[in-house]
Amino acid sequence: MKGCIFNIQRFSIHDGPGIRTNVFLKGCPLNCIWCHNPEGLSPAPQIKYSPEKCIGCGECTKVCEPKGHKVENGMHTLEFSRCIACMKCTENCPSGAVERDGEEKSVEDIIATVLRDSSFYEKSGGGMTLSGGEPLYQPEFALELLKAAKAKGIHTALESCGMTSAENIKKVAPYVDLFLYDYKATGEEEHKRLTGASQRQILENLCLLEELNAIVILRCPIIPDVNDNDTHYRGIAELANKHKNINEINIMPYHSLGNSKRRKLGLDPLYEAETMKVSRAKEIKEAIGKYTGKEVKVI
Amino acid sequence: MRDYRSTEEKYIYSPIMEEVYAEMQKRKKCNRTREGIETGPEPDGKTPFFDIFIKHREKPYPIKLAMAIVESWMVTEPVMHEKELLVGFPRPLRPAHEHFHIGVCRERHILDHPAYIDRKEELGALMTSMRPEFHPDEGQAADRLEKEFFCTEEFPEANRLLWGALWHTGGYQGHTVPNYDILLGKGVGGVLKEVRERLAHETVEKKKLMYQACEIILQGFGDWINYQATAAVKRAEAESDPLLKERYLKAAQNCRDIAFDAPKTYYQAAQLTFFYNLWDANDCTGRTDQYLYPFFEKSLKEDKEFTEDVTASLIMKFYEHGVHNITVGGIIPETGEDGANDLTFLMLQILRRNHATHPRVSIRVNEKSDPRMLALAVQMWSEGMSDPTVASDSTIIPAFINNYGVDPTDAANYTLLGCQELEIPGKSNFGCEDGVFNLAKVLEYTLNNGKDRYDNKATLGLALGKITDYETFEELWSAFEKQLAFLTKRFCELCDLGQQIRATNYAKLVKTPFTEACIERGLNLDDGGALYGYGCVETAGSSVTADSLTAIKTLVYDQKLISRETLEAALAANFEGYEKERQMLLNRAPKFGNDNEEADEMAWRVLKLFWTEIKKYKSIRGGEYSGACSLLSGGLHYGEHTWATADGRRAGEPLGNSIGPRPGADTNGLTAMLNSVSKLPLDLGVGGTTCNIVIPTATTSTPEMRKNIEDVIYTFLKNGGQLGQITTANLDDLIDAKEHPELHTDLIIRIGGFSIKFIELARDEQDEIISRYSA
Question: What interface predicted TM-score (ipTM) does this complex get?
Fold first, then answer.
């Protein structure tokens, strides 16, 4: 079975216990304004352009049928709207300025890569983390990856925004050792405004995970002037207090690198702010800690 | 300190030791050129080496050398610093002194010091005229060097092109660890007795001379130790504090007791260890936590506080004396159990407390190691130290046994020394190092018909053709093999010449009686006296060479995306006008360090080829040459003299970083890089192969993160990694990396959901990261 991924990141140490390999699946049902992995938004392979790597050689123009790439006076320009994702330019670009973002890969290939670090997992209690995008946007593929990993005795974590059917949650839960579950906004309207979708299903799925006795870490992106407020701090704490299967809260302070990635994909930023300082993140951690006895960490 | 094995608790000096350390730092000044870290007294205007060599002109060289070494110490005023426990201080720098790499070393610059300036002309002239007396073999070897190797009429410039570009041999050598078990077990007198017995029955003139020289050294060493008591007595006489007075008197008695007899207490053993290091200018102290442990263990039971003070004193003296390398932990040869003990941890804690660049420390890790040792190491890295270096017992011990015929008990006793080399302490002389060899230059000659691209006139290698002449990749590989074999042979011959110089010059005379088999064989340490005499060759440019070959194979021969003619033109032009091709070479072929089978196999092939080739030759000391790859700044230096390479590297840019990938070539995460390194034929690299690992300080900020780092390093060592050197990068490094990206190519930062090379970020992105870590 094949699915579309945009990265396999080895030596990941922030997304579950121990040393891990993160597999990033493409496609996401939400559209969070701060999205830090915008290459995971679209489910299909696309091109990514890094102007600083471009040497203006024009190799891309030779193969681009819809004439999206242009080089004039050594200056390269790219019209993303013309791109038909044929990927020919990425194969011809010598410098990696135009790169393929997203690739169809088989479960076997991915697991083979994941297994290369199995000795590191063994000692550290690490394993594989599925991330994205939203891994459950490709539910069957995610399920097969998780099954294959479990068959090899590898610890699995699933990073999810929770926006998927209860059916999907039930299917994958037996093969997931740890859910890293996003909580992005407090209040239905706020959630819709920031992510473009209702929160109802997400909260229901969290209840479902409790019923299934799944272990959950709540992951909370904190975005300046957006959800960086006391109402949300309380909301986070209350949600964690409500579910006995949530044993930890992770604060994920905003950084602006998502926007530079958006530009590389031809997407305009939806939100702009300065990267949050570590010292500020620590204050937020303290603030949330006041409302809950559960452990709060800054990631 | 309650628990030496704790990472929470920190070692605190006793008030007296605190004062001693502060004083020591105040008087620390540079009087030596090598690393600028050694301390000694002001120059005193004395000239013992000239005096002895002139007065005893008729005597044979080794006798004069031995007498001069003794004289140089006896004319030096004994020193004991206030409140210290250990007696002794280095000699002042003088116009001539013994040196482990050459025999007698002359220091012309010292003549400008006020102590010598009045005699500058006279001494300067002596320095020149006495050259043949100080270096009995130097002229002869230099002649051979010139005739046999490069400076033929055709290529007067060849020397310049080869030296420091293709290789460097016979230059800086000499780190080797003496046998502290002999020193502490037999005492100076015990060894002297053996030498005298041998001398009495020896008939071979050369051996007799060797024994006579050793006898002079040992008798002189014992007399000198006895003489050092006067410094402690002087302190005692001037002291009113009864506690200190008693300590000084004890120190004085120690000197008398250990002058010829073996030490009985920890205090005495530490004193003798330090005296030895002073006398031998010895900078690598081997498995210090092992040979001192029996003394330490007893002492700790009797008086914990004093035992800690003695340990602290010894470490401080090592610091002051510029000791390079201490090794702790690792298998005990006799039992097969791990040897990490209370002294291991106490030494690490003291070094952690000092947070100094010297002495460096290495830990030996194995499956039986107390995990708290590696945990303490991670703690030290997280606090900003680059010590300790980690070494893998499971990789190193079998390599010594299987490939270099080392006895299993001896192999289990290996130590680190020098920068990051390996040897069998007290039983070997592997010429650390015999030479440096740049593989990237060999490929340069192979692709350019035996010529150096910096000067196309001279044919320095074999003229086998150019890149355009090789029809297939295997043809190119075969030419590379021939070229390498040819140059390796010459290289090893040159290494031999360097050894010849040292052997004839008795370069390591003081260490000779303290190294196993020298006395038995009647040979000095550089003349094949040591039990193991294998050689050590530092390897430069291995990853660049491998990546270049992979790129040529992939893009030129397999995919035919670049023609041989274009590659030749691009290389010749240092890629000017060929940026497209350079980018392809950089980006379109796999690179070593990413756990990619193809690229890693090429790196394996290259190293296997070279290290098998050097193993065909024996050093004149008696053992084969072994591979090493621990060049710390060598990658920069050799890079400066290496032309553009087919991996996309421009002329002059750095070569690889020790055994690791070329800076910036690894993009697949730390575990992938470590897997790549573990695959290399490190069992032939018993000279020492260091993998440099840079991790951001933030990655070590919590106990969980530190545990992860610990697990990564442990797994690397268990999987076949050999040596690892870990550095953490902090905010200052990030700021510096923005200005000097070329120096921080391996700096990886983790933010939000991904890891990225810091230098690959745009400037504004870098600022964002920096702002996150700023207060």
Answer: 0.94
- Identify the top-confidence range among B209-218, B485-494, B696-705: B209-218
Interface residues of B toward A, Cβ cutoff 8 Å, are 579-581, 583-584, 586-588, 595, 668-672, 675, 699, 702, 704-705, 707-708, 711-712, 714-715, 718-719, 750-755, 761-762, 764-765, 768-769, 771-775
Per-residue DSSP letter, B89:
-
**Alpha carbon A40 to chain centroid distance?**
6
Residue-wise pLDDT tens digits, B258-285: 999 999 999 999 999 999 999 998 989 9
Beta strand extents in B159-212 (DSSP E only):
167-169
pLDDT in tens, B207-237: 999 999 999 999 999 999 999 999 999 999 9
Architecture of domain B142-169+433-686: Alpha-Beta Barrel (3.20)
The answer to whether the CB atoms of A94 and B672 lie below 8 A apart is no
**What distance separates the 2 farthest-apart alpha carbons in chain B?**
87
Q: Do A59 and B580 touch (CB under 8 A)?
A: yes
Name the residue ranges covered by the structural domains of chain B: 37-136+181-267, 142-169+433-686
Which residues of chain B have a CB within 8 Å of the CB of A14? Answer: 750
Residue B770's alpha-carbon distances to B300, B548, B689, in angstroms, are 48, 35, 33
Q: Whole-angstrom Cα distance, residue B450 to residue B444?
A: 8
Q: Which two tokens stand for residue B470?
A: 């090789």
Determine whether domain A46-101 maps to CATH 1.10.10.10: no
Domain A2-43+105-298 belongs to what topology? Answer: TIM Barrel (3.20.20)
pLDDT tens per residue, range B418-446: 878 999 999 999 888 888 999 999 999 99
A120 min Cα distance to partner chain B (Å): 6
Report domain extents, chain A: 2-43+105-298, 46-101
Nearest-CB residue to A19 (from B712, B769, B771): B712
Alpha helices in B281-338 (DSSP H): 288-291, 293-302, 304-321
Cα nearest neighbour of B674 on chain A: A117
CB pairs under 8 A between A and B: 112
Q: Is the peptide bond before A133 cis (omega within 30 degrees of 0)?
A: yes
Would A2-43+105-298 and A46-101 be classified into the same CATH topology? no
